[in-house]
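Record pair follows.
FIRST:
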Amino acid sequence: MPKYWLIKSEPDVFSIDDLSNAEKKTTYWDGVRNYLARNYMRDEMKIGDKVLYYHSNCDPMGVAGVCEVVKESYPDFSAFDPKDTHYDPKSKKDNPTWYMIDVKFVEKFKNIVQLSDIKNNPKLSEMKLIQRGNRLSVMPITKTEFDEIHKMGKNS
């Protein structure tokens, strides 16, 4: 059984369109520098898991589409590169701190499922995304939450 996730990216950094246009519609998901988000990627995200792709820090913010995990965790090489914005001098190749996964584009919604619509949907009232103080860039969601947002995205 697949698990369900939500990942966030600022669209001016890497959008759902960038993923759709990537070679083989696939990319590595690097640069996560929160330990809980890292643990989700390293320990729990598996090939075939379904992922909502969320555009953050933009107007409007919301879920732009769907992707899926196509490669399980491996060391995040951006942590080892001093020229990379995600460089971490404490992370070592023989003992990496940070990990990444690969995701593949599945679909883009015609219209973004806006954060305000997610907040106003009673079926999504327990979703981690809308809980106060939750700013994780990678978070688990339930199948029910995935299905509801997917339905909202298909009907928009």
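SECOND:
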Amino acid sequence: MTMRDLIPWNKNQQLTTGEAYDPFLTFHREMNRLFDDVFRGFGSVGRPGSPLIEGQFGWPRIELSETDKAVTISAELPGLSEKDVQVEIANGVLSIRGEKKAEHDNGGRYSERYYGSFERRIPLDGVQEDKAEANFRNGVLTVSLPKTEQASQGVKRIAINTSN
């Protein structure tokens, strides 16, 4: 079953109801066609062997937290192990990449699960790249990077004025 099977028309078909011309329906069809054309080059999500839309829709989801002393990035990677993930940092950019492999052949079943390669790049500034630590537990990757001394000293507080 494809996504096209779930909608009552596609580019080459009209609605089967034989309704009269409706400008809003025509607008709706044209918008669907436009989005189909734009996203056609990104691959198909949900089929084994097809690439994930890398970074386009933000997979894997991340959470970034910052304290005075460190920056911590957590990424949700359900169904993966630490062997499936590669973490690198170079020139102020943290890269999280890997691949989620299909557990079995889809065999004509419908699946909304994501399979394929992924990569997420997070630019970082003022961290000690050589002291980065990564932990993987229960499908969550956590990367901790201590801040440089200059990064913590370079912060200036800005007073907020109220105007009445």
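COMMENT: The first helix runs from residue 23 to 39.
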